[in-house]
């Protein structure tokens, strides 16, 4: 079974030293944060992933971005956000895709706020770090639009958006709405219970009820990456070992008129 990407706060002392990454807004971090936490400039990372010059193909850019966080070596990166879980999952996906060991704190900041023991082994920079990227070695791979378009019949698509987005009644900022042919809807909110990702057994039941089977080649997507990353983490936690994320997601698919979409208020 793949390594669980989610860690409960009370399990943090068991992993030894770790690099603590904060994915909240700057004002939230300034108001209250653990002493050793380093903020991930998530707004820069989101923009970079969508830019041709700094997309995931630009390994040098991402090596430096990850090095700047002090990630590298034997210490895993432990990531938390404001409790939504999607932004921490976004950072987790990028880190693990490039070969960094990374874990998402289940429940985010609300789950660790005011606690000292779980964060006691968070470490600061002890000297220069250098991160060497190894794209594609993580438990969740990356798929782009053209590759997915050519292989729609060979994958099982997990759409982590809302029911209205899936049906095409909520376009968000897209010119077209609907869903990819063959996609199965599993809204990211259904993966959570009181702000925490559900246990592995519950997630397996959800995926099974949505039509996913053991051994499926699962591709997750949402509209812009965060929910897709969380759904991918959920699939890995549930025991699926052939998972990829279409990180640029429906916003990228919808802008290409040659990519088919289905408008249907009935979900599968």
What is the gist of this entry?
The protein has 268 residues and is an alpha/beta fold. The protein has two domains: 6-119, Rhodanese-like domain (Oxidized Rhodanese, domain 1), CATH 3.40.250; 140-254, Rhodanese-like domain (Oxidized Rhodanese, domain 1, 3-Layer(aba) Sandwich). Helices cover 29% and strands 13% of the residues.
Tell me what the structure shows.
This protein is α/β, with parallel strands linked by helices. It folds into two domains: 6-119, Rhodanese-like domain (Oxidized Rhodanese, domain 1, 3-Layer(aba) Sandwich); 140-254, Oxidized Rhodanese, domain 1 (3-Layer(aba) Sandwich). It contains ten helices and twelve strands. It has helices spanning 26-31, 42-49, 59-67, 86-97, 109-112, 145-150, 163-167, 200-209, 226-237, 249-254, and strands spanning 6-7, 19-22, 38-39, 77-80, 102-105, 140-142, 156-159, 184-185, 192-193, 196-197, 218-221, 243-245. The strands form three sheets. The protein has a five-stranded parallel β-sheet. A five-stranded parallel β-sheet has the order 6-12-11-7-8. A two-stranded antiparallel sheet has the order 9-10. The longest helix has 12 residues, at 86-97. It is globular and about 50 Å long. The two termini are 28 Å apart.
């Amino acid at each position: 079974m793949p390594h669980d990407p989610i860690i409960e706060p009370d399990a943090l002392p068991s992993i030894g030293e770790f690099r603590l990454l904060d994915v909240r807004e700057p004002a939230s971090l300034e108001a209250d944060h653990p002493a050793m936490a380093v903020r991930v400039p998530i707004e820069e990372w989101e923009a970079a992933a969508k830019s041709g010059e700094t997309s995931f193909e630009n390994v040098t850019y991402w090596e430096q971005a990850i090095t700047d966080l002090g990630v590298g070596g034997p210490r895993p990166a432990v990531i938390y956000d404001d409790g939504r879980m999607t932004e921490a999952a976004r950072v987790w996906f990028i880190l693990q895709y490039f070969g960094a060991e990374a874990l998402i704190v289940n429940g985010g900041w609300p789950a660790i706020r005011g606690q000292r023991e779980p964060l006691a082994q968070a470490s600061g920079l002890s000297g220069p770090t250098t991160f060497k990227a190894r794209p594609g070695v993580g438990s969740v791979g990356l798929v782009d639009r053209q590759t997915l378009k050519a292989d729609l019949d060979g994958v099982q698509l997990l759409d982590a958006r809302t029911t209205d987005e899936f049906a095409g009644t909520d376009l968000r900022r897209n010119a077209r709405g609907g869903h990819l042919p063959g996609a199965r809807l599993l809204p990211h909110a259904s993966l959570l219970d009181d702000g925490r990702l559900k246990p592995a057994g519950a997630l397996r039941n959800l995926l099974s009820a949505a039509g996913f089977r053991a051994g499926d080649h699962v591709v997750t997507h949402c509209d812009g990456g965060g929910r897709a990353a969380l759904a991918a983490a959920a699939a890995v936690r549930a025991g699926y070992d052939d998972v990829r994320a279409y990180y640029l997601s429906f916003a990228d698919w919808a802008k290409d008129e040659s990519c088919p979409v289905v408008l249907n208020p009935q979900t599968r």
